[in-house]
Amino acid sequence: MAYWALAAFGFAAVVAAATPARSDTVIQGKAAFTRGNYQRAARLLAPPASAGNPRAQAMLGFMYEHGFGVPQAYDVAADLYCRSAERGDPSGQYLLGLMYDKGHGVERDEVLAYKWLDLAAAGASGRDRENYMKLRDAVASKMTVNQVREGQRQALNWRQR
C-alpha cells in the first residue's frame, strides 16, 4: 500500500473516531478540516491539543505531517502523535507507528513501529482494528523473529503499566 494511501486512511480513521463526547472545539476543528479550511482547523485544534486532548493531538499531528494549514514538520507531528499515543489513543498510536516505520520525524525503528501498531490494533474496533492489524503484520514481515518478539514484549509491558 502506498504511503499516501496509508496517510489518507490514517486521517480518515482519526476523523471517524472523533465522537460527540469530545469537546466542541475538537468537533469544530474536525469539521473545518473536512471542509478544507485547514488554517481554521489548526487554530481550533491547537488549544485542546496543548491541553492534552489525545484526539486533537492526533488530528493536529496529521496536519503537521502533511502540511495542511501549518508548515510541514515531521518532528512536530511525531511529538503530537507520541503524546496522543501515550494517552492510549489508537489513532495516535497507529500514526506514530507509521512514523517509526518510515523514519519521519523519528529515527526509523521497526520494533517501535510494531509496538505502536500492535497497541493501536488492540485498542481499535471494527474496520480500524483490521486495518491496523494488516499494517502491523506488514511491518512484521520486514522484521526478524526476535524483533517481532521484542515489539510484542514492549507492547505488553506498555499495556500492563
Protein architecture, described:
- The structure is a single chain.
- The chain is built from 9 helices and no strands.
- It is 76% helix and 0% strand.
- α5 (74-86) crosses α6 (90-102).
- The model is unreliable at 1-9 and 15-21 (pLDDT under 50).
- It is mostly helical and 161 residues long.
- The longest helix has 16 residues, at 145-160.
> Helix proportion of residues, in percent?
over 70%
- Gyration radius, rounded: 15 Å
CATH H-level homologous superfamily name: Tetratricopeptide repeat domain
Q: Choose one word for the global shape.
A: elongated
Stated plainly, the CATH topology is called Serine Threonine Protein Phosphatase 5, Tetratricopeptide repeat
Give a quick account of the main beta sheet: strands, pairing sense, barrel closure: none
Total beta strand runs: 0
Write a short abstract of this structure.
By secondary structure, the chain is an all-alpha fold.
Detail the topology: elements first, then pairings.
Blueprint: H1 3-17, H2 24-34, H3 38-50, H4 54-66, H5 74-86, H6 90-102, H7 110-123, H8 126-140, H9 145-160
Helix pairs in contact: 1-4, 1-6, 2-3, 3-4, 4-5, 5-6, 6-7, 7-8, 7-9
Features:
161 residues; mainly alpha; Serine Threonine Protein Phosphatase 5, Tetratricopeptide repeat
